[in-house]
Specification:
The chain has 7 helices and 3 strands, in the order H-H-E-E-H-H-H-H-E-H. It is α+β, with helices and mostly antiparallel strands. InterPro entries: Puta_zinc/iron-chelating_dom, UCP006173.
Length: about 160
């Protein structure tokens, strides 16, 4: 029997169809958290403060099609700029493929289930506060590092069925 090799293992990002490209997003919501940039070093820090359009539970954008009407500075990830966006979390599907790595067990393309990303604990589900509830001057009180480390524990949690 011939096993079909999944598209993300055979194609570069540039070769993917729009549908394939879109499906690389695991729905973690981490890129929709506010980030702070240190003015002198340029270092970027994640906060637990979510964009006003991000749903705390589903981790989806509430108005994806019209988001720029509400959030003009929302960054659209594209095949052209994926290389330049240094703040994509290490678990991001686009970052992994762009770096020549594989998707992990929790990715919906691997598991076949959009919930595994939450079960693995790598998503923003239930641990963010809306930017509408925090004064911009207080953003630095919400700096967190879990968006960068969630994958470490999740990799060890790989269920037997996914091995
Ligand atoms: S960080 Fe990457 S995988 Fe997660 S929601 Fe954003 S684009 Fe999708
Ligand atoms: S507008 Fe939507 S896609 Fe853009 S950062 Fe906010 S929640 Fe994310």
């Amino acid at each position: 029997m011939m096993e079909k090799i999944p598209f993300w293992k055979t194609k570069t990002l540039a070769e993917m169809t729009t549908t394939e490209w879109e499906s690389l997003c695991d729905g973690c919501g981490l890129c929709c958290l506010n980030k702070l940039e240190e003015w002198d070093s340029g270092d970027i820090y994640f906060t637990s403060i979510r964009c006003k359009l991000l749903d705390n539970e589903s981790c989806r954008c509430a108005s994806y099609e019209n988001r720029w009407d509400f959030v003009p500075d929302c960054v659209q990830l594209t095949k052209q700029n994926v290389d330049e966006i240094a703040w994509l979390p290490p678990t991001c599907g686009y970052r992994l493929i762009n770096e020549g790595r594989d998707l992990y067990w929790w990715h919906p393309l691997v598991s076949g289930d959009p919930e595994t990303v939450h079960a693995a604990g790598i998503s923003a589900r239930g641990r963010t506060i809306s930017e509408t509830e925090v004064d911009v001057d207080d953003f630095e009180d919400y700096v967190v590092d879990w968006p960068l480390t969630v994958g470490d524990e999740a990799r060890a949690k790989q269920p037997e069925t996914a091995k």
